[in-house]
Amino acid sequence: xxxxxxxxxxxxxxxxxxxxxxxxxxxxxxxxxxxxxxxxxxxxxxxxxxxxxxxxxxxxxxxxxxxxxxxxxxxxxxxxxxxxxxxxxxxxxxxxxxxxxxxxxxxxxxxxxxxxxxxxxxxxxxxxxxxxxxxxxxxxxxxxxxxxxxxxxxxxxxxxxxxxxxxxxxxxxxxxxxxxxxxxxxxxxxxxxxxxxxxxxxxxxxxxxxxxxxxxxxxxxxxxxxxxxxxxxxxxxxxxxxxxxxxxxxxxxxxxxxxxxxxxxxxxxxxxxxxxx
Length: 277
Fold this sequence. Notes:
Layout: H1 7-34, E1 39-41, E2 47-49, H2 50-64, E3 72-74, H3 81-84, E4 89-97, H4 99-104, E5 110-117, E6 120-128, E7 133-138, E8 142-147, E9 150-153, E10 167-171, H5 177-181, E11 190-194, H6 198-207, E12 212-215, H7 225-233, E13 237-240, E14 259-262, H8 269-272
Parallel strand pairs: 3-4, 10-11
Antiparallel strand pairs: 1-2, 4-5, 5-6, 6-7, 7-8, 8-9, 12-14, 13-14
Helix pairs in contact: 1-2, 6-7
């Protein structure tokens, strides 16, 4: 069994990463509030802004200055497989998760930072700048939310009747609702909660505001790294749509499968998402 980063080191790193996430959030907010940013299109037809690039540069430099010195993998600065294939520990970052929301002005975007150790996320921080809210977790240390300076432990919502109670489904502002609900059991009572950003929807499940989130469509490992450790430490899980583990830096491809963030583990999620297994 792999030995991951010890608790004392995780506690120290968690404090340092929280500060870096907030500093990055301030940088991104300056671009957001001024509207002074450019928008380009990447090779995969997704947008990237000058704010994404500035945040990526700041994060990469700040994380590289921490001890121990570890490599950084950013959505905006892909490291070739030949260089990263033997990495045992590294930082995985999404400088702005929810770039479309940033551009459209909804405020639903976040800075996402994860520490990957032996292909497993062991520390995660997701900062929501417009709400001054930080979600954070580390292996064996639990998950918490820091809002307006007040820290509170978070856990997934525990249903009174896991087999029958209404489920709250976090869904995207930009994706047709039926694309998600059509994959769910029509016999189960459902309510939707809209927000942007993959990582923020995952955090809604972790804090108990929603019960599940299904992502259909292209994403990268940076979209799930921090979210995975936060949801797991809050008592839930993050798995592929076929209920298989999501992996990190195992292949040259950094793409994710369609994935689900699931709350209350007492729920029979296979029956909620029939036909996906």
